[in-house]
Amino acid sequence: MTDTYDPLDFEFEEPIRISPSVPNKKKKVIGLDDLLEDHAKEQKRINERKSKRKKIKNASDSEEDEDAREKELSKCVDKCQKEMDQINDDDEMPLWGIQVFGDQRTFPALEHPEPRSCFILQSIMNNKLNSLVELTIEKGEPFLEGLLVDGWLLKLIFTQGQVEKSISTWIFNLMLYSSKEWLRKAACEFWCSILSPEVEASSSDIKIDWLPSYSDLKRALDIYGYLLDSPSKCSPDIDMIHADSDTAGPPQNIRFWIKYVAACCQVRNTHIIFSTSEAEDFLGVIISLFLDRQLLGLSMILNACMYSVISFFKEEEWHDSCERVTKSLGCRLPRDINCLRTVESISGSNGRSKHLRSAVAKQFLIRCLQEKECDAEDILRMLISINVKDKNCDLSKMYIYLAFARKFKAEYESKQKVIAKEEVLVISSALTELK
Amino acid sequence: MDNPKRVAGGAANRGLEENTMAILDTAGFNSSKISHHLNDDRLAFLEAVRCASLLSCNGTAPTSIMFEAVFQILKDEDSLALIMESYQLLVDLTKRFPRVYLSKTEKSESSSSNVKSELVVVQEAWCPFSFGLDNYNEKAVANKQLGGSVDSLSFHALLQEVVKASKERKSEVVEIKFLRNMLLLQYLIIIFEGDFLPRNSAYQENMNWTLLRESLLNMLLGSRKIIYKGFIQDCLCIMCDLSFDQTELSSEVSHDSRHSGDLSEETDTALVLALPELEKSTCTVLKKLVLMIMELDLSRSMADLQGLTTRADGVRTPVVDIILEELIYNSDILLSFLQVFDEPKWKLKVIEEYFQKYIPKSSVRTRRSNGQVKDLTFDGVLKCFSNSNSTKSIIKKLSIEVAQLLLAHAFQAYLSLSLQHLPEGGSELKEDVKGSSLAEVCKNVISAFTSLRREDKDTEILPFGKEALFTAATILLTES
Question: Where is this region: Disordered (chain A) (predicted)?
Fold first, then answer.
């Protein structure tokens, strides 16, 4: 930096700098050193021009001039230092996280299938073999639980090729409402196995008398205390209200709820469980679950679930569905740092995930800028028009905007090279201002 | 065509590396409340790596230094968000940029359009392991600087830590370290898997033992730094502890968290929600590890038979033998092992070998083929229980409970196998399933239990046995 002798440009001491002369070579990663070099070259050129001019004007009082400049420089540095300290002190980025689950409601009572009406149990009781099993009507319930937990029920269903209604509703309710881990776990494994054919014999042969519907799953979500179904409920005060509550936060059953939704979405070919709009709704729900810090440790199953819901849609449905999901997320979620988390949580690397990620970013950006419908260029124009030097400009908001723009851009890049180029310039210059 | 893109193009990668690593640079920090910012930076770093390698259209694999940094975050951090994020990122990267994979090349001219798969090993790819010089991979060691930092000793140490933590779970407060160790273990086993599976299937095709000899798994097990038997025992321990206690634990913990007000911290709730899930997946992953070792043993014994192995390969007791020894001398573990280990093929094999040790040789003598004494099959076992004398002698050596348990579990494994092969028809039936029809086996299971009961009238049939009987009876009813 020795050859860039220009006091007024004190701020350029910082190495993270993007000059307008960024070489826009395709796909080349611009290293920080490259930027620095470019910047140095640029400065050298400017300096040379200036000094030439100066030489013509006045060559003698260059020393006095230098003193004045030095003073000016140290003043600026001090001022800058103060500002930096201020930024360090009070400008902390808020943490993401909203409470997605409030109070749990009372769980419905678990109804065991009536052993007398249960086909599976009944057939054996009249049989001579019962002398060994010693099954009675009274022992029917615990016996059924044992069959389920130890995996025998699944084997029976596969050999018989049919699940009767009383059994399937019972197991479904165990999965969603049982407080016993081993029961809900076995119940979830049962349902996932009879739905997805890969593990055991082809499940297409299995006749399932009763399939849980969308409303059954929504009801469970409601009982778990899910708050984001109506936009009005979602306010930042919500965590205040429920903070000390005994039953705030989702029950362990939410894990199986998530897994079950994932399983349902994978079997669209064999079982019609959700309609397209219902799947759209679940996609929104799954994405919103990423915002609750209580569910942070479940990100693996959430990711898997998001992936299978995204792959649920048929090719011709995807575009419109994606748009509707995006819109509803835009309405439901608060417009702050949480939006950024939302976008980042859509982390899949397949085409649809990327598309969704970009669309959600765009949607939030539009909402944040309080516009209705606009395309990429309009957004850019608006971003450029924000004056970051204005005192009223909220820098943390600006940060979020730019982060959105970047995420939204990632998808666009491949499609519209020209816009992308422009965008790089806008974003980089804005970032420069921000620093 | 579908080969993952992995451009070695140095300049671009170096630039990427510099820029992303700069995020982790702490040079600018001087305040005391630094940790919050550091965590933010690390999250931003992970996000940047994800964007650059996974989300951009032509992303390249991160450089070793970047990989190392991500791995370091998983190893050392205490923040739940960072641990989850770095784990997910590492797993996604491993999937997208595998170090070892099979490429299907169609050699139409030479081998008459036979689709042959060829094993590709990306030597320069990052790997978390370095098994040092006591292995055969000297060329690789010489060629690249090994970026990995986990050796056989530290892998075993990690395993032991998880063993310890899973034993003490009930008494202690849920710890983030336990969670982190489980995820670390899972990731490392995923690496073993990604390395072993393609090698093993390539070996099945071309019988090139070197491929498996150089597999990470084989290097780990052959390492003289660890005690192999202890290693297997630890694996079994984790599998059984994590699956067995889980039930009481999770309900207890969630109970606790509701009543002690201090635990209302979000992270604690998150841990309480996450732990049962992670314990289950850790258990599954360890099961995979044990299964891989079993498959490796199988391939190894094939290689031994064909004279492909050399003295340098050393000798190693097959894992099934070690497991059997454990099960026989430690009957506590037997019940939970049988419950957890649900891969039917190997489960049936383990149980058959268990019986083999206790059934007098004279009654085992079944068919002979190629002059070799055939292993005992499930059918053979059931036949032993059909006559009173051999039943008596078995019960004398084994307890009646163990006999019931083994029988019932073998029946369950048998059912799984027969169900798996149902759609393909009779052509590809496994040896174990061949022989008798399902109905016959059900009948034999019932008669085996009946004769057990006859020998000892006071003993109740175990619940698991009753369930097996019920299943057999119901199948008989529907079949007839």
Answer: 43-70
